[in-house]
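We now fix the convention by which a protein and its fold are recorded. The integers have meaning only within a learned vocabulary of local backbone shapes. A record is reproduced here so that you can trace the correspondence yourselves:
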Amino acid sequence: MGATREDFLVDEYKALRSEIDVLLAETRRLEIYSAGVAAGLFSWFVTQHVPAGVLWYVPLVVAALASVRAAVSYVRITQLGNYIRETEAVFLSSGNPIGWERTKRTSGLLVSGIVVWLLLLIGCGTAPSYLQPLGRTPTLNEQQAL
């Protein structure tokens, strides 16, 4: 009842920062789990002599879907950051301090996220051509040559 506009904005700021923290943690888990799934599947394909085919591209599909989800999270984080920037403008109109969201900085989060996902997607897309020969069962002639 006695809450002011400023109290509301402070509580809202805390909730939005919490949402950003959750989204950041989720994107990190997506990166780790996607790489783990790809490594696990490729290892299994090689050791079980899975023949060349569409199955070898399942890790790429998993990585692609996870990267889309991560991109959605990055967009949401950007939206929240923009709103927090506006809220900071209300509270910090005197200029000191200027507020974290209003400082001039590069978006290292976005750049590092793009690099990680590109490396994972490229790796999953090219790995089958390098790994399939390792998992191939030798022919009878090749076994006799050994």
Notes: The first helix runs from residue 5 to 47. The chain has four helices and no strands. The chain has one domain: 5-145. Residues 5-145 form one domain.
